[in-house]
Amino acid sequence: MVQRYSREIMAKKWDLKAKYDAWLKVELAAVKAWNKLGIINDTDCKKILENAKFDINRIDEIEKTTKHDVIAFLTNVSENLGEEGRFLHYAMTSSDCIDTAVALQIKESLELILEDIEQLLDVIKKRALEHKNTLMVGRSHGIHGEPITFGLVMAIWYDEIKNAKELLLHAKEVISYGKISGAMGNFAHAPLEFEEEVCKILNLKPAPVSNQIIQRDRYAQVISAIAILASSCEQIAVAIRHFQRTEVYEAEEYFSQGQKGSSAMPHKRNPVLSENITGLCRILRSFVTPALENVALWHERDISHSSVERFILPDAFITADFMLNRLKDLIDNLLVYPKNMMKNLNLTGGLVFSGRVLLELPLKGLSREEAYKIVQRNAMKVWNDLQDGKSALNEKNESLFLIALLNDEDLRSKLKEEDVRKCFDYSYYTKNIDAIFARTFK
Fold first, then answer.
1. DSSP bridge partners of 149
2. Residues labelled as active-site residues
3. How would you classify the pairing of strands 177-178 and 251-252?
4. Rounded Cα distance, 220 and 287, in Å
5. Less packed terminus of the chain by CB within 10 Å, N or C?
6. Spatial separation of the C-alpha atoms in residues 324 and 49, rounded to whole Å
7. Which of 410, 33, 407, 54 is nearest to 206 (CA)?
8. pTM of this structure
């Protein structure tokens, strides 16, 4: 965990105190369950519940001897108990405590991540509605395509993040399972009712079947869902980085008073937040491979997964929480430049309307091949004119492509001037935006 990229609210869910708190919660739930099943009497149960506690420094001291963190923890807790301490961890194995406790930690952390996502979705929706009709050029391969709106771009962001949210909701269901099935998962030392009661107390579901551990496909699903979320977040960050390029300059990150962009070039305003988000998302995706490899353990269990999870579980949640909040603030404060968007839309002298013209000619009897040939030769002429430095618009504010089409005899034999000019109407490309938004933000 890197402090620079963590928020205290999530970091606290994965510090040592949180880990031992979760372990103690599981152990005390087990005591309550044994009490209900008649193994522990009311007096001993009450004493354990009232006096069980731990000291992190003391656990560390004990572990130097035991070389076993769960035993060190249990030894320390038992130091605060009397004879009733004999029922602590009764008929349980270490993973009964650890895996059930980690399920609690992951579940709670996912709840915070889902809150982060809701806040991010609210911000994206707000900005999408703000720019629902803000015209800009759509691009494929980085090349100008047809007119769209910036609101449509953001609506796509919204839908993709919403899809990631659904995956995380499913992951929360998948991970909300505990196991108290004993050393080999055969319930030799405790009945199934014991596990069921412990999980009920902890608001978890009992795993239908387990060996010494909760199966790691559950963890892999959680980490994979976080990685997919990260990929969608990076897509947003990469788009913002592109919009902020000097040659594009359609949007940029908020640049605060006194902020510096470069130690050498005082004019610089760099997309540092979105670049940082890109980097954090790369880290989040890197956790998928070890999470998947943790699924394949020897027989009923080994501990090759343990060291991996000490890294990837805290770091995945802490990093995702930080990244989501940074992205939310970035979008909320994003500076958008509609005039530059329109300037870029006109940059290619009306070529963005070529598809509309192409569709009109077959309606007048031309084959698609002949229509494509007519439209493309005029488009190529405009490209050449632009390469020669010719202005995209003439003195009458008419585009090069419109002028070229009006002067093409083959095209004019099929389309009247007013039909050609009608093809250069931006509203044709935005007529379904309201319907798209109604479907997206329902």
1. 135
2. 141, 262
3. unpaired
4. 9
5. C
6. 38
7. 33
8. 0.95
Cα–Cα distance for residue pair 94/180, rounded to 1 Å = 10
Q: Tokens 């994206």 identify what position?
A: 124
Residues 70, 428: Cα–Cα separation, whole Å: 67
For residue 369, the Cα-to-chain-centroid distance in whole angstroms is 44
CA-CA distance, 412 to 41, in Å (whole number)? 97
Query: Facing residues of 96 across strands?
Result: none
Distance CA 12, CA 344 (A): 47
Mean pLDDT of the chain: 96
Provide the token pair at 91.
């008929």
Average pLDDT over residues 303-328: 96
State how far Cα 320 lies from the chain centre: 7
Please state the three-class secondary structure of the chain as a single string: CCHHHCCHHHHHHHCHHHHHHHHHHHHHHHHHHHHHCCCCCHHHHHHHHHHCCCCHHHHHHHHHHHCCHHHHHHHHHHCCCCHHHHHCCCCCCHHHHHHHHHHHHHHHHHHHHHHHHHHHHHHHHHHHHHCCCCEEEEEECCEEEEEEEHHHHHHHHHHHHHHHHHHHHHHHHHHCEECCCCCCCCCCCCCHHHHHHHHHHHCCEECCCCCCCCCCHHHHHHHHHHHHHHHHHHHHHHHHHHHCCCCCCCEECCCCCCCCCCCCCCCCCCCHHHHHHHHHHHHHHHCHHHHHHCCCCCCCCCCHHHHHHHHHHHHHHHHHHHHHHHHHHHHHCCEECHHHHHHHHCCCCCHHHHHHHHHHHHHCCCCHHHHHHHHHHHHHHHHHHHHCCCCCECCCCCEHHHHHHHCCHHHHCCCCHHHHHHCCCCHHHHCCHHHHHHHHCC
Phi/psi of residue 142, each to 5°?
A: 80, 0
Helices 192-202, 94-130: inter-axial angle, 10-degree rounding: 40
pLDDT for position 257:
85
pLDDT tens, position by position, 266-278: 888 999 999 999 9
Length of the chain: 442
CB 58 within 8 A of CB 66: no
- Return the axis-axis angle of helices 304-332 and 272-286, rounded to nearest 10°: 160
Angle, nearest 10°, between helix axes 217-243 and 94-130? Answer: 30
Rounded Cα distance between 303 and 308, Å, is 9
- Those residues whose C-beta lies under 8 Å from the C-beta of residue 262, and which sit 6 or more positions away, are 268, 270
